[in-house]
Design goal:
single chain, 3-stranded mixed sheet
Length: 93
Amino acid sequence: MTGVSANPRKAGQPFRPKSDIDFFVESGQLTEGLPTSRTIPGMVPPREVMKVYPELKTWADKWSGELGRKVSPAGFLPGTVPEQPAIVAPKGR
């Protein structure tokens, strides 16, 4: 978590108390055949991912309620995840 927005229109601005939490998964299986964002290269928007994987919508709804803010899982085509901002899990996890 960076604590600031990566959105080009809001870059560097601190998160608000009710800012959403975006989760990104780099996966060919998750993104196969799904349309990508017009503005973020290689990203499959949450609405597209959750249409095909309703379990992710259930998960997002649960955590949105638990955390009191919207949780959004999106996908990235392999090799297209932006360098920043990122929290990357160690290899093997």
